[in-house]
Design a protein that fits this description.
Blueprint: H1 9-41, H2 44-105, H3 111-142, E1 159-165, H4 175-182, H5 186-189, H6 193-208, E2 214-220, E3 224-226, E4 236-237, H7 241-252, H8 262-268, E5 278-283, H9 301-312, E6 321-325, H10 334-344, E7 349-350
Parallel strand pairs: 1-2, 1-5, 5-6, 6-7
Antiparallel strand pairs: 2-3, 2-4
Amino acid sequence: MARKRKFSTSNLSFLDIMSCGFGAVALIFLILKHDIDNRQNITPNDLQAEANLLNDDIRTAEALKVRAKNTLSELDQELLKAQGLARRINDDILAARTRLDQLSENDDVTVEQLKLEIQTLQAQKKALEEDQKQGDDLRSISGQGDRQYLTGLKLTGQRILILLDVSGSMLDESLINIIRRRNMPQAQQRQAAKWQRTLATVEWLLAKFPAQSQYQLYTFNTEVKASIPGTKGKWLDVSNKDQYQQAMTSLRSLTPAKGTSLEKAFISMSGFEQRPDNVFLITDGLPTQGIRPPRGNTIDGNARLKLFNQALQRLPRGIPVNVILEPMEGDPMAAAALWQLAQRSKGAFMSPSKDWP
């Protein structure tokens, strides 16, 4: 009978160690192979894209850096300005305090004397303002001699006629606002911006007429009236201050209303014994009626142009007509028609801006 081998625990331990070693080697081999496979999946295009993204990030960071430097430089400049201003303010305060100390130490200068000097200076200022105002009034009447071609308007003539449109459309530039204005109190209507600019235009014209000339100011809507009652068909002297003030006072108390009859305005030019040699027409569009009122409540552009051509038949020949066209919506043919009137009569045409005159 054969003899049995002895069992040894050391043999089993050796086998365990060898098995673990082979397992570790196999695991390392699998890990390395998997990493190689992943690396093989990364293409050069992917790498280039990553590089481009990094470059974009770098450029963005540099731009932000430059912007931050510029902002910092601007803040430094503002800080320097503020510091300079603070120093100037401190210097002014110090100078004021020094002045006060000098005044308090000077026995000859008292508070009462300072008050008296202030009152004297205020009186002188008031006198200068009154003189300036009086000079402005005189200039607005006497005009500026031969300044003829300001803004293209020929401001000459011995007998100058102003035809001022005072119809309801002179209250505003849009039809909706005109209707709204009509429902307001008359005092509020007269404060409309468009109407106030028109009054300023009349004052500007009267200020520029030659001092030796004569003028007349007619207002027209459905009727024609002289600005000074009782002077229709008569010429007024530019140098007459009282007549000027009376004409402007009457004009400021007038509220624009009703339609526009340019035909009646042109007919009124024949009512002078000595006809005008220069005319200024201030309006905002084509007429809405002729000699007689219109039959309907509305009128289109073609009908208004027909009324305008009809009015031209009443215009005396050989008189230049200078047109000042105020803005107005819904009348696209007005500018061309009135420009042609100015050109044919050898006058001037202008459409002033809101800040003129």
